[in-house]
Amino acid sequence: MIEGELRSYAGAGGTPLRYRVLRANPERFALLYLHGIESHGAWFVRAAQALVDRGCTTYLLDRRGSGLNRDGEPGHDGDAESAEVLLEDVRRFRSHADLATVVLVGLSWGGKLAVAAALDQPAGVRAVVLVTPGLVPAVDLTLGQKLRALASLAGGGHASIELPIAPEMFTHTPRWLDYIEHDPDRLTSVTARFLRASRSLDHRLRAPQAALTAPVLLLLAGHDRIIDNGRTLALLERLCHRELRVRRYAESTHSIQFDDTRRLVDDVSAFLAEAAC
Of 39, 228, 251, 256, which has the fewest beta carbons less than 10 angstroms from its beta carbon? Predict the structure, then answer.
């Protein structure tokens, strides 16, 4: 499998951030992919490679503190200073890649950042594709973890908080379950201040004036244990002021990019050909 060209750009504060790009020639659409809370861009490479054949260049942007941008330093992995820093990383990437138009693709937690980025900088966003997006989670931290995170914020927020997601919540397919369980770059914890940044993104999505002006494709898994499908759909029905298309993968758990790659690629390609043109 071609894993793409590795490049870097200067994110918020000048922080160097690495990413992958899989280029289509000719290119019909530029996709900016934002990954989940535990994952990284490589989890979407299989789908991105198939999308190349449909004329889609995909930029797999690894979040600071994740994937290609982990440095192993205590308090750095799974970290982000604020929601504003995360959004500035996306703004700077769009400028770096000179993306006059872009399709924002968000998977799991990355769906939250994708929607927030579309609200933050709507000009040039042709469409938003949300793959089992973590807008309304079905999992939560324990009370003890929440209290520990709050206490840490008083001293900078660098405490590491374990995430309440088990590998089998992503997929039941043995091949991909083994991949996830043994992925050395998978995060199993994030910092307290990352959780604060994530909550700040939630507030942006729920602001009374928040409105998505680009067409949205929502892909939901029927057996998802990580996100709340019903409340996620209700939130997007309020946010979307244009077209909202919903596709349901009745037998899937959460990681449909692994378990049903061909259908995902077909659904995304058909949506872009119709709604984003």
Answer: 251
Q: Specify the pairing of strand 125-131 against strand 160-162.
A: unpaired
The tens digit of pLDDT for each residue in 260-277 reads 999 999 999 999 999 866
CATH of the structural domain 5-275, one choice from 3.40.50.1820, 1.10.150.20, 3.30.460.80, 3.40.190.290: 3.40.50.1820
Helix (H) / strand (E) element for 249: namely: strand 244-249
| DSSP codes, 92-128 | HHHHHTT-SSEEEEEETHHHHHHHHHHHH--TTEEEE
Q: Which of 212, 200, 209 is nearest to 239 (CA)?
A: 212
Give every CB contact of residue 198 below 8 A, 6+ residues apart in sequence: 37, 83, 109, 112
Q: What is the pLDDT of residues 25-83, one digit of tens each?
A: 999 999 999 999 999 999 999 999 999 999 999 999 999 999 999 987 766 899 999 99
Enumerate the domain spans of the chain: 5-275
